[in-house]
Amino acid sequence: MTAHVLFAAEPSVSAGDTRSAVLIGFLLVVVASLFACLLLGPQREEAESFYVGRRRDKPLRNSLALAGDYVSSATVVGTAGTVALMGFDGLFVAGSTLAALGVLHLLAGPLRARGRFTLADVFADRAPGTAVRVTAAVVTLLVCLLYLVVQLSAVALVTAQLLGLETVGAQRAIAVMTGVLITCATAVGGMRGATALQTAKSVVVLVALTLVVGALLTRFGGNPAGLLDAAESNNGAGPAYFRPGLLQQSNPSASWGLDFVGLQLSIVLGAAVMPHVLMRLHATPGPAAARRSVRGALLVVGAVLVLTVLIGLGTAATVGGEKLAAVSPGGTGALMLTTGTLAGGPGTTWGAVLFVLVATAVFATSLAVIAGITLTASAAIGHDLYRHALRRADGQDKGVELGTARWGAVAVSAAGMTLTYAALAWNMQMFSWVALALAASSLLPALVYSLHWSRFTERGLLWTLAGGAALVLVLQVFTPVVSGLPSSLLPGYDFAWLPLQSVAPLTVPAGFALGWLGSVVGGGTPGGGAGVGQAAGDRAGDDDAEVRDVGDVVRP
Asked: What DSSP string describes 447-494?
């Protein structure tokens, strides 16, 4: 997506003025984010305050924050592009994104009852031990690192394009600067700072997308049927636009629709158990509050997705599928291209205001998600690896744990920035599919078994976490995402014998099978006894709201 496509200058306001306004908007977001994190940082130097804040936020705030954690720039920008290019299949992707929150709702109550800060706490409730905690922390860090690369690359690409900076060097500089800023904000603000960012981000995104859809419907006289007719006429695929199959054509080597199933499986099951989303549930007062937060987030995310789908259809109707594919092959430019064509384009005063607002919302979306990912990774390092696995921090030394968590945030961010710096010229889609498949194939089976199967053993837990993750990493190497296609990570090579973009159709059942097999062979003892006591002790100091919810604890 080139800058001259986005900034079609009109006499009223120049493209340079619009870019300057975009830059000012970005700087305001950064300054406001840092100020909020400084102001709302932990009032006491305690790990609990840093990881989960006060656990007393109102349901609306929790819902907005959870939606802010869940809705990434890929959701906003990617879904609009997928709908614009793929029609019906794009609508299916949007539905899968929402369905993931339905899966999360099923897990929210028991997960909040069992855990204290991290996923490893939930698993330790089933099988307390160093091996389980270390394995869970490593898988969490791996998922967080891969998803951090996706978010850093997204904010670098979008910001560079909006500012007219087309070089990879400029994108790398933006990725590094963004990573440094968010690392500082997260290390200072902790969960309360992240909550402020995510809540504000949800509101800004809803307002920006609503204005775009309003301008879009105004162009068609407020008639959604006219919008649909124009989308079918101008999308470039004709009547096939509203029939399934266009997304499948993007990977013709895949057979019998398994690739499409795999993509949806990754979204529905993987997005539901992303570590930074699950950690948000631990910031709620109790199990009932966690479920209420997910229900509220369902409404917010549903509204965002409906608006995004309408924008995708509007892109097909006003910009056209062929033009979008020419300037943005993956469709990621759909949102900004559509915004640029409305209200007279970004060269007019109203068009410039709308354009800057949407650009700022996309930028804020990436920052909020990056903050949540960084905080989750820091908790895995400070709480799981340092305090419990190394047993270096006890009740008298929690300040050291907090310091370790903050330095952990710096280390993970540095690793993410380094990988993003090297990988910006690659196909970023691979990192997203691997992160989602890892979560769906490793974390999801472990959670389902830990929360609902009384015979689940420590061995089964380890086999699920380690085995599921290993299968994803190995099998993904042999997919077209890595080699065999011009868009692959290594386009000059071809060792792709597995015709799938996401390996989830194979690895998700394998993850569940490994958990079952590890639990029924070898004479392992079912977990649950000591872990339940440990979790109850950890929760004893929580506020009254959580004590009232103790009846929501689900015993397997």
From this structure: HHHHHH-TT-BHHHHHIIIIIHHHHHHHHHTTSTTTBSSTTSSBTT--
